[in-house]
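Quick one: structure tokens for this chain, please?
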Amino acid sequence: MDYQIKAFKLVSILEAISFLVLLLIAMPLKYIWESPEMVRVVGMAHGILFIVYLIGAYFIYEKLNWSLKTLGIVMLCSVLPLGPIYAEKKYLPSH
């Protein structure tokens, strides 16, 4: 498997995990226990991974000759919890 596809798969997983950590751990810490520090750290990491995911999706779109519809779906998945993992499993080659 090509290194770009492997890298995109890794970014997909990390982006999904960072989103869940942000939603399920960091945000409750901020709003329930008034501890905003984790939102800053996890939010920054998630933001970077989100941008890398979108850029990576574009490069994979070109590499695999996806349709614009597929690119749109993969990019839309980035705003759903666990969406990038779904997109990675559905639209990327397994080997």
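The chain has a mean pLDDT of 96.
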